[in-house]
Specification:
Largest sheet: 8 strands, mixed
Helix content: 25-40%
Shape: globular
Number of helices: 13
GO molecular function: UDP-glucose 4-epimerase activity
Protein name: NAD-dependent epimerase/dehydratase domain-containing protein
Organism: Phaseolus vulgaris (Kidney bean)
Strand order of the largest sheet: 1-4-3-2-5-6-7-12
GO biological process, one term: monosaccharide metabolic process
Order of helices and strands: EHHEHEHEHEHEHEEHEEEHEEHEHHH
Pfam families: Epimerase
Amino acid sequence: MARLVALQQNQLSFSPLASSLSDFSGTRLPTQLQLKRKLWQPKGSFYVSASSTKKILIMGGTRFIGVFLSRLLVKEGHQVTLFTRGKTPVTQQLPGESDSDYADFSSKILHLKGDRKDFEFVKSSLSAEGFEVVYDINGREADEVEPILDALPNLEQFIYCSSAGVYLKSDLLPHAETDAVDPKSRHKGKLETESLLQSKDVNWTSIRPVYIYGPLNYNPVEEWFFHRLKAGRPIPIPSSGIQITQLGHVKDLARAFVQVLGNDKASKEVFNISGEKYVTFDGLAKACAKAGGFPEPELVHYNPKDFDFGKKKSFPFRDQHFFASIEKAKRLVGWEPEFDLVGGLADSYNLDFGRGTFRKEADFSTDDIILGKKLVSV
């Protein structure tokens, strides 16, 4: 039988990120943001009450989405187990989280160490524990999900993190859950997983986020802009800069995952989850500047076809219109995003980048290529 390990208060493990926060605790934030602390402090309705407690397994849970989701579920009183390979600390203190709240969370979270690609281990360990609900945050392929379903024949709900990247590119936007999907997309494994869930006698719900942002984001969605703003550099934007995209805050996404738990209206349904408003690339650069208290940036537009960047990405978003309707989630399960874009970016900046923490060092090499050619052409 697999052994579940509870992290007791005297066994707390801090990641390098958590320990580094104190190094920057004295950093003075921009005055205008200090006057808007309510924008980035945890919001009261971030906690969603549950009708009954459940024995819940989260596949993953130590990075970004799962970190916020596990907090909510434990706060509700659920017994939460994280299934990970154990290569990173099972818990880490969130930016802005008190020592006592972190200690309380760490003492309640459980850990099941294993490789989800070891299908026999997955079957034996999960069947021995008899979880009632599974959140699959890091599943990429259908064959990684089937052993979970086989191991838990009495599973009450399987909640899957898919992606709005599964939609077929279209001139008709925003994407709705009924839109055509692209079987050749880089997220085809998630599509195949959704098909598997539909074919099985299981109560499932699939969440399709668009771009996700917020504290601890390992995808440099907002961090890319913050690096350039901090350095006082121009921001290169591909093409016209009026391409429209959409971002959703990680805390709003976590609330959506909780809101579908045990909700009959979410049974065998797919939901797009993101922010309320859409934004242009130019508008996003300006929103990041406003959120971080920086002057409005100089924007430099370029034609991506004029450059060969090799394997490097010159911009963190796909160069196209890409956004989805969230009306179905609002209508069926009553979920609504709480963060507006500037407020959400301020939350991310103040609780992460503004403290001096980030996932990747600044790399301006592609910017220099773009700006160099622009100067020569002028």
